[in-house]
Write a structure and sequence with these properties.
mainly alpha, two-stranded antiparallel sheet, two-stranded antiparallel ribbon, globular
Amino acid sequence: MSAAAMDRTLPARDAGGLPPRWSASALGLRFGIVLVGAVLFVVFALTSGSFATFANLRNVLEQTTVVGIVAIGETAVMLTGGIDLSVGSTVLLSSVVMSDLSINHGWPASVAIVVGIGAGLLVGVANGVITVALGIEPIIVTLGTLLAAGGLGQILLNNSWITVHSRAFVDVAVLSLAGIPLMVWMMVVLYAGAALLMHRTTFGRTIYAIGGNRAAARLAGLAVGRRLVAVYALSGLLAGVAGYFEAGQLGIISQNDGSGMEFSAILAVLIGGLSVKTGGVGRVEKTFAGVLVAGMISDYLILKGVPGAYEQAAVGALILAAVLADHVLRRGQQ
């Protein structure tokens, strides 16, 4: 075999003599979130006696469920190169609609829940249609629906609150399996379904193609507009589901519900390794890991009595750190 032929059979290597997939930057992109999570868990367990208890870890899982479900839709949207800032307000609107119909208007709880989730779906469809039909940047469109959906939810609340006591709402947070709340198991099922959708279906592969090169996706004959509308609709639908979980978990719906949730979801997506530089790069299962890491950090700060303002500053710093890490690691692969 000639030297040239041998070169073609050997894996490409980086400047350090390692195949690209085994370089430091590639390993960081693949397993960085797992390593970060493991290190943080050990540090938190050693510096807080109550962190690693079953009761507290169960609480971490429960408290991350609503944001975790929202982050699934946010991942799909960001993979296409877009963003959805309306998810927090959509959670509020959905929870208010279903709670108001059930508690104040006597609708059957199951019907009210479906209508509330449908309200979230409508917000998502509106985001997609306006973005695609008018060609407006999604950050502007979803900022508008953030204000509109949040304002409508507050109007329906009428400067008051709704106490949710129906078993159809409460059971999702109260019932458990193997000591873990039912809502946590449902979140895991949703992530498993999303992973299959993204990696095993034409729809999922199209999302990656659109994020990677939208113009090329159009030239390839892909229905880019319809797929984008579907992605934003999925984000709204999942925000509606999260609104149901929020209602069951809190038991009281107030005007501040969902506030800032869009940033928590984006944080989880970025910690999970979705690239803000290269479209169509990221995995929804890594978003799940990002949700857990962000949840651990938030829980630890609470256990240590850190004021809320400092926690907000920490969230901002983590977003910047995630973006910087993505920049450094992906530049290392070039």
